[in-house]
């Protein structure tokens, strides 16, 4: 019979065991790793724990859990916090059930009325629901070279990419403070224009520092000024462009098109064979944009637990109650939005 306990994340041998287990699982993601949970928790002032399922001394399952607390959005256990993947990782049904039950016990102990799993199989039991209608993911193999990559892009989008390739852009890849500052300025501007608050600077710095050489920033400059930038993670042969965006000038310059082409080139040079374009909400502009690049949409399922009598947490910007707030946020000066935004965004989870 499997047993469940909290991981000892201060033990190097335990961490190595967990990393090896995640890497060996077909459904493993970088968002299951302790380094992701610790980086995002430190960057946003939250707390991170991990539950392990064992049988006869062998690790057979785990679930990473971020305790997210926010005066605006409430409290929740999220797996994984600030990630698009996570959830219970186990091929053993009995272990998965025990991990789910232990997560519920932890949520009750911490006073969290909600558990949000960013992936994993449906969970049976009181309070659990399943939704695979809201989000879709986009992943495809990288082509063998630049010419093949261009041909893999549908004709209409390919024409925009060709125009972007003709522009005199400067491409910069880095991991230092200057690269992070450039990224934060561009990304902060991008999300302000979308009407959402930017995450704290420290979040990006923690991810870069803790993932070390497995994360970096790629920026596209025009006239010496960055107009598009993306922070990416590289794991198990896949590049994950995670936090990316462009300034108001980027669209006319097609800087985002250049950014993703250059990231594909850069990832291929690093030995990556797949490109994970991340998740998008069904029926949105970002989902359509990714389809235009030749990526097929795959439904993503999310189990959620809600305590008796509690309302499910919904921090999505598509929630109608945030419509007026989003419209007002878009009008804020970027400097103001980038100072106030992190105080809000760190509680999104």
UniProtKB/TrEMBL annotation:
<dbReference type="InterPro" id="IPR017469">
    <property type="entry name" value="PEP-CTERM_FemAB-rel"/>
</dbReference>
<feature type="domain" description="BioF2-like acetyltransferase">
    <location>
        <begin position="157"/>
        <end position="291"/>
    </location>
</feature>
<dbReference type="InterPro" id="IPR038740">
    <property type="entry name" value="BioF2-like_GNAT_dom"/>
</dbReference>
<dbReference type="InterPro" id="IPR016181">
    <property type="entry name" value="Acyl_CoA_acyltransferase"/>
</dbReference>
<dbReference type="Pfam" id="PF13480">
    <property type="entry name" value="Acetyltransf_6"/>
</dbReference>
<dbReference type="InterPro" id="IPR050644">
    <property type="entry name" value="PG_Glycine_Bridge_Synth"/>
</dbReference>
<protein>
    <submittedName>
        <fullName>FemAB family PEP-CTERM system-associated protein</fullName>
    </submittedName>
</protein>
């Amino acid at each position: 019979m499997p047993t469940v306990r909290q991981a000892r994340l201060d033990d190097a041998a335990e961490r190595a065991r967990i990393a090896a287990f995640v890497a060996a699982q077909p459904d493993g993601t970088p968002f299951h790793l302790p380094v992701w949970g610790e980086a995002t928790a430190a960057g946003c002032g939250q707390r991170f724990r991990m539950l392990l399922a064992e049988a006869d001394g062998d690790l057979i399952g785990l679930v990473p859990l971020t305790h997210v607390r926010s005066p605006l959005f409430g409290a929740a256990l999220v797996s994984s916090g600030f990630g698009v993947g996570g959830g219970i990782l186990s091929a053993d049904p009995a272990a998965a059930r025990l991990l789910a039950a232990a997560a519920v016990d932890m949520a009750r102990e911490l006073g969290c009325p909600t558990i949000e799993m960013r992936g994993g199989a449906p969970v049976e039991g009181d309070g659990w629901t399943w939704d695979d209608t809201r989000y879709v993911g986009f992943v495809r193999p990288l082509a063998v070279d630049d010419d093949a990559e261009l041909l893999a892009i549908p004709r209409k989008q390919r024409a925009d990419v060709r125009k972007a390739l003709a522009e005199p852009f400067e491409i910069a890849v880095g991991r230092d403070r200057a690269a992070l500052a450039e990224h934060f300025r561009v990304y902060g501007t991008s999300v302000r224009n979308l009407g959402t608050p930017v995450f704290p600077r420290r979040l990006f710095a923690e991810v870069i520092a803790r993932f070390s050489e497995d994360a970096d920033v790629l920026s596209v400059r025009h006239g010496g000024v960055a107009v598009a930038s993306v922070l990416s993670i590289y794991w198990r042969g896949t590049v994950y462009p995670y936090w990316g965006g462009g300034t108001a000038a980027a669209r006319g310059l097609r800087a985002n098109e250049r950014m993703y082409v250059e990231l594909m080139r850069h990832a291929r040079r690093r030995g990556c064979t797949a490109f994970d374009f991340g998740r998008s909400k069904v029926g949105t502009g970002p989902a359509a944009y990714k389809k235009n690049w030749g990526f097929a949409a795959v439904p993503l399922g999310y189990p959620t637990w809600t305590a008796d009598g509690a309302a499910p947490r919904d921090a999505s910007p598509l929630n109608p109650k945030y419509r007026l707030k989003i419209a007002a946020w878009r009008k804020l000066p970027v400097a103001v939005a980038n100072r106030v935004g992190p105080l809000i965004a760190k509680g999104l989870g």
